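ugh ok fine here u go
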Amino acid sequence: MYGKLRSLVPESSVTEDTVMMLDFFENETFAQFVQRLGLQKNDLGDCFINGKLAKNDYVLLDGDRLGVFPFNMVLLCGGQHLKGHGYTKEDVDVDYY
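structure:
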């Protein structure tokens, strides 16, 4: 958890990694995970699953590592190289490599 989302983790500190360990729910998508945290899409900036840009319909796997950033923390230059040139707020299907 990053930025102001650190507050979701009891006793978190800005000087240490803020890690939230949660139970794995089979067939849960990233969007459903966000809802489970009590957040909405507008609460989030750019998030990552195992180092790749998170997509709402991605089905989480047991052991996935998520980087969850608040709305005010986004990729530099809008992350257009990851999201597709010309798109910065849309969920675009992009070949990352």
